[in-house]
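To assess whether ligand presence alters the predicted conformation, the chain was also submitted together with S-adenosylmethionine. Input:
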Amino acid sequence: MVSSSPPAPSPLHGEGGITSGDPAAFDGLAEGYDAAFSHRPIGRFLRGVVQARLAAHFRAGDHVLEMGCGTGEDALWLAERGIRVTATDASETMLAVTRAKCAGQALVEARRLDLAGLRGEEDEEELNRRDAENTEEYGDSTAKTQSTQRNTAEWDGGFSSFGAMNCLEDWRGVAGWLGERIRPGGIVGLGVMSPWCVWEPLWHGLHGDWRTATRRWRRKTLFQGAADGQATAVTYPSIGRLSRDFAPYFERIHVQPLGLFLPPSDVFGVIEKRPRLMRLLMALEARFGRARLLAALADHYWVEFRRRESNAD
Ligand SMILES: C[S@@+](CC[C@H](N)C(=O)[O-])C[C@H]1O[C@@H](n2cnc3c(N)ncnc32)[C@H](O)[C@@H]1O
């Protein structure tokens, strides 16, 4: 997630009364987002790492779900490789940028989806209710047919790059919802801001800004995308927490750092002004990019789950 210095989001502090999942917080960011992040040298490098992972799993002809697509950079990249993308975001302003960027690209469908409202269990309850009604009316076989229809997968896989998952406070709902819609064996990849990022406390600590230096350790901060915009809560789930919430439906198959040597976006400018240092950090990032044990120390970690053939007990 882009994390500070205009037009990137400026984190606020003070956790009282935060409500999570107010996607309007991102509306004011949409227009400047690519200039502040996607089109910066470090942003491009990090997105390249994500796209290499997507390319490892998704093939032309696949249909994938993108969650929190922002300005549609990854959706367009995948579509140019023959992959059909349902690109979703809760912010209409972000979706407008995605639609404009992907205009004429028939393989991208941009659609509003608020991840905070997703629940697998509710679908289950609804299905059970309908099954019970059908059983009463028609006997067991029709109820079983309904169950089979419900399990028809919509997508071959899914992903979310750079922080949309940090806008939730509980991931069981989205995991359950995905569990019902990703085909068995399908991959879900998530780029998530880590609670243990080393850069942030070092950089902000050295500059005497302790509130910012320690914000991830509080696990929940207030984020305001634009100075006059809505605020929303940002959380920092650990790899373990996310894995536990996904575990009933998905097994974790891969984790790696994303921004271990390269800094969070509010420090991009400092490094980009020093091209030799930037090249060195990029080389280190590439060298240690698969170091699973260092993933939690990065700005984001990238975690991949595979949909189980059947739900875990
Ligand atoms: C930091 S941006 C990342 C955008 C994009 N994935 C990228 O790689 O550049 C986070 C995105 O998550 C979206 N978002 C925040 N809360 C959301 C929610 N509850 N449901 C869906 N999207 C959400 C925001 O609107 C924003 O576009």
